[in-house]
Amino acid sequence: MRGFVTLFGKEVLRFWKVSFQTLLAPLVSTLLYLLVFAQVLDSHAEIYPGVSYREFLIPGLAMMAMLQNAFSNTSSSLIQSKLTGNIVFILLPPLSPFEIFSAYVLAAMVRGFAVGGCVWLASLVFFPHIPAHPFELLLFALLGNALAAVLGLIAGIWSEKFDQLAAFQNFLIVPLTFLAGVFYSIHSLPPLWRTISRFNPFLYMIDGFRFGFFGVSDIPPLESMLIVGGCAFALSCLSLSLLSRGWRLRH
Amino acid sequence: MTDSSKLITGRPGFDGAAISIRGAKKRFGQFEALKGLDLEVRQGEFFALLGPNGAGKTTLISLLSGLARPDAGELSILGFDVARDYRQARRSVGVVPQELVFDPFFTVRETLRLQSGYFGMRPDPKWIDALLENLKLEDKADSNMRSLSGGMKRRVLVAQALVHRPSVLILDEPTAGVDVELRQTLWKFIRHLNEEGLTILLTTHYLEEAQALCNRVAMMKGGQIIALDTTQNLLAHHTRPSLTLSVGQGKVLPEQLMQRATQLPAGRFRLGLESFAEVEQILGACRASGLHIEDLEVGQADLEEVFVRIMADTPK
Fold first, then answer.
1. Residue A221 included in any domain
2. Which residue among A3, A84, A250 sits closest to B101, beta carbon to beta carbon?
3. How far A6 CA sits from the closest chain B CA (Å)?
């Protein structure tokens, strides 16, 4: 237990020590998105009755920031440790695969929540609002952060150089988040793209999270919850199995 | 030297080998790094594992410490199987890796506190202070790892390997690129810990270090052990003392001596000795032939010579 607590603490401390880069930078870029898009597209028709475009954007952007930062935390910590060789400090001690898994994932979720929380607090200044369903809001934030953190863990284990990790991030994570309805409702898409979007698990996180805010969504929240939860569970099993086998970590 | 006698834990009631390796095999692609290796290191030994680069020393250490997994064979630390009882096995061993690795986010003290925590231990400030003092790192305790010189980083690695009070310490070329003073500090401390009961497995390319410190030596080549004995026996069985004579430029030894002598530059000759009693006879023979001896030197055999000979005698 102490091993887990220490590793978790170290992972939190690691991003906290560089918080300009890990907390403040994503906060600023998310707020810039919000200001620019809200300004340019506010004349856009209401997406849900009574929900302006700028309001619609907030949960999507907050979730996108959380997902990208939770993913970054696990993946960049692991790839840095692997490339500098200090991964041995984690591999030599008697830490179990589950301890390693949970410490990395929970620390990444803390960063996700910190960024998401700051985005939400900052957005209150511009657009005061109270979430309609705080429980669902937190649940989707939790599941989304967990899923992204686990994906980051897998990406970090898989990558053997920064280039591979960048490919994972730029060709998988970024498109999946951008095309998950952060900036639009999937009902505004042509039928083919709507169907394709349905295969993107990030869509369900953002849609469910938005339900927590406004009480309306494109997809029934229970369905989203099951899909996101199922994906998070499956990826967790996969990453635990990789850690147990020592794949690309213990040669 | 700080008293550390109560700080090294063992495995009470266990009197088996500190390190036991049976039939260890490991292959990396086409390269067979270990070819079914057996080795036992007893508790309390200061053991040297020697061999040229690529002999398989680091692979063996990786298997013992869980950084790599064997294709076949059984490895245990204090009777704990490194795969089955990996928690106890890893808790029992401290490893100083060959690569100079560090976490740039933390200070020396933070690094040591974290490392104790990973091993499931409450950080023990007294033990951490003792390590810092003995490794001459007190002044650097609150410096960031990034700001340390190579030698200091190496010492932090040693402290990290000891911070959870292991019973077995594995040092993989700990003095590569380390200056003389630091080497002496390090060895003084390690020798002290060994006297307190810590088992030590050392790999090094500095054979004089191995000779001075280790009671037993294994030599590896091509993934196998090709010599294993006490340091004393290796020296006694594989080398002889020698006598080097300077007789002046252009001069030669009497004929009966020339046959067994090796000619060196500047009118010098080296003769292998069966015993030191021979020195008298050789000098007598030189005197009898009217040869003037300008200088002489009786050389004791060293481990480097043994190493070179054993390596040369063993085919790849």
1. yes
2. A84
3. 5
Query: What is the ipTM, given to two decimal places?
Result: 0.91
Q: What is the CATH number of the domain that holds B124?
A: 3.40.50.300
Residue B229 lies in a domain: yes
Region A192-209: what's the mean pLDDT? 94
Note the pLDDT tens digit of each residue in B174-217.
987 778 888 899 999 999 999 999 999 999 988 999 999 999 99
Contact status of B134 with chain A (Cβ, < 8 Å): no
Strand segments (E) across B58-158: 72-77, 80-81, 93-96
Q: Closest chain B residue to A85 measured between Cα atoms?
A: B101
Residues of B in contact with A94 (CB under 8 A): 86-91, 119-120
Residues 6+ apart with CB under 8 A from A14: A77, A107, B105
Q: Looking at beta carbons, which pairs linking B304-311 to residues 24 or more positions away fall under 8 Å?
A: B304/B207, B304/B208, B304/B211, B305/B238, B305/B239, B306/B234, B306/B235, B306/B238, B306/B239, B307/B50, B307/B207, B307/B219, B309/B238, B309/B239, B310/B219, B310/B226, B310/B227, B310/B238, B311/B52, B311/B219, B311/B221, B311/B226
Span A17-60, pLDDT tens digits: 999 999 999 999 999 988 888 778 777 667 788 888 888 889 99
Same domain, B199 and B249: no
> Quick check: is B59 in a domain?
yes
Chain A nearest C-alpha distance from B169 (Å): 12
Q: Name the domain count of chain A.
A: 1
- Whichever domain contains B278, its CATH number is 3.30.70
Number of domains comprising chain B: 2
Is the CB of B101 less than 8 angstroms away from the CB of A17?
no
Residue A250 lies in a domain: no
Are A3 and B86 within 8 A, CB to CB? no
Q: What range does the domain containing B154 cover?
A: 19-236
